[in-house]
Amino acid sequence: MKRSKAWMLPLTALIILALTACGGSKPDSPGTSEGSAKGSDKPLKDVKVVLDWTPNTNHTGLYVAKEKGFYEKEGLNVEIVQPGQASADDLVASNKIPFGISYQESVTQARIQGVPLVSIAAVIQHNTSGFAAPVDRSIQSPKDFEGKTYGGWGSPVEEAVMKSIMDLQGADVKKVKNINIGDADYFTAVKRDIDFAWIYYAWTGVEAELRGEPLDMLYVKDYSKDLDYYTPVIVTNEETIKSDPELVKSFMKATSEGYKFAIDKPEEAAGILSAAVPELDKKLVAASQKWLSPRYQDDASQWGVQKAEVWSNYATWMYDHKLLDKQLEADKAFTNDFLPKE
Question: Start and end of every SsuA/THI5-like domain (predicted)?
């Protein structure tokens, strides 16, 4: 489960995306399938949702909703696709695909540049990412980053987060060596080039447990409430919300059912994901799902709900750390309106 590289989009590309989307370009023709909604003669509507990366347990609810017929019940034939040269953010913002998986940080960056992404659900209620190191590196606090080598993907947010939590302990981020490891596997990189990296515990951390390679994990949310942001999120675009709100509502009703199923039945949900994506390690999927399922909703009133203060707190943090040119209009970046009423 890799971190997003949406941060690396040039500003000109973001602006072009905004102009394209605002011009009212239509998504790929949805057509109709040969099937029909259960209990109805009405043809199913073909809809795509694009992942942020390769399939993993962040996405289980989507696969459950498809396998269990929750989408079909809502009149939808949903195809789950992986991004190619274009990222999920690109495809959704330009209205090529109506739904995708993204991150609060990249949605915030996009909104500042006029790109019309809108978050419609938090997949996980609290940030499960952080800095991880093999225990033999003795990195048990941000101060221990000094003198060590960090492997990242070249985003300005990485050093800003690192500096932010190191400053709290009087540590100097300039004493950390940064190298770009790109798409290199974490376990290979820490044996060869680096001491620590930024990971999602639900995948890489759980994999480390299964490998018998224990980690010291420093969750960024534990050092600042501003860093307890939503990652990942489900996104759509303003044009889809405006032109077909019923589609968004139907998609989110079924998707919510999928994630609630994964919360209640993690073992069965893991089996559904493994069957849909057989190249995944089944033991890793099962262990990851067990760890992640209770964290989907956590302490929220329902799965997917988002709070304005989480969006505004993180955006203010970004602005204060010179990652944004202006303050975010948080109320336009997300909505809970399409979650089912409970």
Answer: 56-269
pLDDT band at residue 41 using 50, 70 and 90 as cut-offs:
low
CATH number at residue 253: 3.40.190.10
Domain span including residue 149: 129-225
Taking the CA of residue 193 as centre, how many other CA atoms within 13 Å lie in the half-sphere pointing to its CB? 16
Q: Any idea which residue has 């990366």 for tokens?
A: 53
Closest among 79, 98, 112, 78 to 6, alpha carbons compared: 112
* Number of independent structural domains in the chain: 2
User: CB neighbours of 41 closer than 8 A, spacing ≥ 6?
Assistant: none
Cβ–Cβ under 8 Å, residues 47 and 98: yes
Q: What is the pLDDT of residues 284-299, one digit of tens each?
A: 999 999 999 999 999 9
Query: Cβ distance 82 to 50 under 8 Å?
Result: yes
Alpha-helix residue ranges (DSSP H) falling in the chain: 11-22, 60-67, 70-73, 88-93, 104-112, 156-167, 186-192, 206-211, 238-243, 245-264, 266-276, 282-297, 308-320, 330-333
Q: How many CB atoms lie within 10 A of CB 173?
A: 19
Q: Which of 199, 225, 251 is the endpoint of a domain? A: 225
Do 116 and 260 reside in the same domain of the chain? yes
* Helical (H) or strand (E) element with 155: none
DSSP 283-328: HHHHHHHHHHHHHHHTTSSSTB---HHHHHHHHHHHHHTTS-SS--
pLDDT tens-digit series, residues 185-223: 999 999 999 999 999 999 999 999 999 999 999 999 999
**For 227-240, what is each residue's pLDDT tens digit?**
999 999 999 999 99
Task: Residue 33: count other Cβ atoms within 10 Å of its Cβ.
Answer: 14
